[in-house]
Amino acid sequence: MNIIRKIIIGQNPKDALAYVLDMKAGAGYVSVIEFDERTYLKNGHRCYDIYITSNSGTMLWKRVENMPTLAEYDCHFE
Predict the structure, then answer these.
(1) Backbone dihedral region of 37: left (phi > 0), alpha (psi from -120 to 50 degrees) or beta?
(2) Pairing between β-strand 47-54 and β-strand 57-65 as defined by DSSP bridges
(3) Is the pLDDT of residue 1 over 60?
(4) How many degrees, rounded to 5, is the angle at CA 37 between CA 75 and CA 2?
(5) CA torsion sign, 45 to 51 to 33 to 2?
(6) CA–CA separation, 22 vs 36, rounded Å?
(7) Exposed, middle or buried, 48 (CB in 10 Å: 0-12/13-18/19+)?
(8) Given 20, 27, 55, 63, which is the most exposed site by the fewest CB atoms within 10 A?
């Protein structure tokens, strides 16, 4: 279950890069932002994978590794 809806990459959040679910990316859109737990357990590096979806399917678009990152989780309250 993917619960990350946004990540901000950089030292200062005001000047950093941000990726949000459903954000336009080339001919597609950001469909999944995933924390790579395997890399973290193996190397101790925080790693996030960003996937995009287009007419061609879903593919890995970017990998953010060992960078200051702020993750925003998708919280649904009912």
Answers:
(1) alpha
(2) antiparallel
(3) no
(4) 30
(5) negative
(6) 20
(7) buried
(8) 55
Total residue count of the chain as it appears in this document: 78
How far apart, in whole angstroms, are the C-alpha atoms of residue 30 and residue 68? 20
Can you give the residue ranges of every domain in the chain?
A: 4-73
> How far is 39 from 15, CA to CA, in rounded Å?
27
Q: What is the pLDDT of residues 27-41, one digit of tens each?
A: 899 999 999 999 999
- Percent of the chain with pLDDT strictly greater than 90: 79
Q: Which helix (H) or strand (E) holds 60?
A: strand 57-65
Look at the block and give the residue holding tokens 């737990």: 37
DSSP structure string for 16-46: SEEEETT-EETTEEEEEEEE-HHHHHHHS--
